[in-house]
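Fig. S4 source data, part A: sequence.
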Amino acid sequence: MEEIGHWINGKRVAGTSGRSADVWNPATGEVQAKVALASTAEIEAAVADAAAAQAGWAATNPQRRARVMMEFVRLLNRDMDKLAEALSREHGKTIPDAKGDVQRGLEVVEFCIGAPHLLKGEFTDSAGPGIDMYSMRQPIGVAAGITPFNFPAMIPMWKMAPALVCGNAFILKPSERDPSVPLMLAELMQEAGLPDSVLQVINGDKEAVDAILDNPTIAGIGFVGSTPIAQYIYERGCANGKRVQCFGGAKNHMIIMPDADLDQAADALVGAGYGAAGERCMAISVAVPVGEETADRLIEKLVPKIEALKVGPYTAGNDVDYGPVVTPQAKDNILRLVQSGIDAGAELVVDGRDFSLQGYEDGFFIGPHLFDRVTPDMDIYRKEIFGPVLSTVRAGSYEEALKLAMDHEYGNGTAIFTRDGDAARDFAARVNVGMVGINVPIPVPLAYHTFGGWKKSVFGDLNQHGPDAFRFYTKTKTVTARWPSGIKEGGEFSIPVME
């Protein structure tokens, strides 16, 4: 059986803790590898080596650091098929979806090529008599990223590329459920010219996470995952004096107005609700049709589209709509929540509980589910299911639909489908959610904007990628300079002011 270790000081190494975790093949239900789980001592040694390498990397000018990112982009495109296959094998995504995972990470790396411009400071000439004032953006030192299983290529790149191009060293602790792609990314980064030890990839569980949170050398931490863990990492990291940004759970609502193109809305809901088996923080999991007639017509259009979805392994071809969920525990949790919806009185319009795929009976496949007449007190509405389950909550008016999205504790993404520009503009202005789509179901911003939710979907002040990433991974130093004229005039004992 394959043994997966870590990437330390420019090479793959075996773990030394004696502990490991199973890496499943989600399609077959078999354990395909064992991944090492790092000890606190392993984390501390890797951080120390990264800190020693960081000074030289920070002294490398931004243009040369950007050239490493430029070459990394070329290598990502070269190895796209290899990366996608490895990702699909461990996560279960279809190949097109896996390539999209890599591509959205690659786009952030492309943005980072602009580091020489993005890292420019500010300068004021003659701020006072003979005084110039300027500010510099400098790296924070050693940063760390703790990333989730559902985007094993994209989110590691969202974290490490801005951190590295800003001149930091970076410790990546990816999900132990699908660890191969992050190690492959480290190899490509080295091939692109990144010095040894500047990027360390360490697999692990809670012991590794706590070691990162408590390590005094690590100055900043980025996390993506569930809200309870996001809050834990934020609180412990901040208590230890670190800069921390954590992105948590979601329950994304899509409002469908009576004037919406319902064919377009139904297609959008199917793609956004069931793509990647619903294992996306930006998946639409709640449809909110406004008015009973809108709801009835929407359900009528959704049912045949959902029933026609093709569920299967990534090896079955590019026409597969979605694959298995990542682990047996994930499957059990989704089915438990589905049962809770039935028990609470929601109407299960499409029932995927008995789904079975010939030849893959032991895989972690779940058929698509569609609930109607869900109410806000139900667990299937309140909790993030992270599976192929779409809930329909009927609203009597636009204001009621808006209130549903605003009252939910999560505020990651939302969307409205309408032909009414005034309604769309009002929705975008008033809704207390971080990312808003107008006739766009999954409003993930492009790399040169920033990604982040509101409410319990985020802990911290700055978003991911875009300009915010450069703010997060740097600190500002402001210099006030006066060069003496050579004429001694005596000391000044009052605060200097402009004249």
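Fig. S4 source data, part B ends here. The chain has a mean pLDDT of 96.
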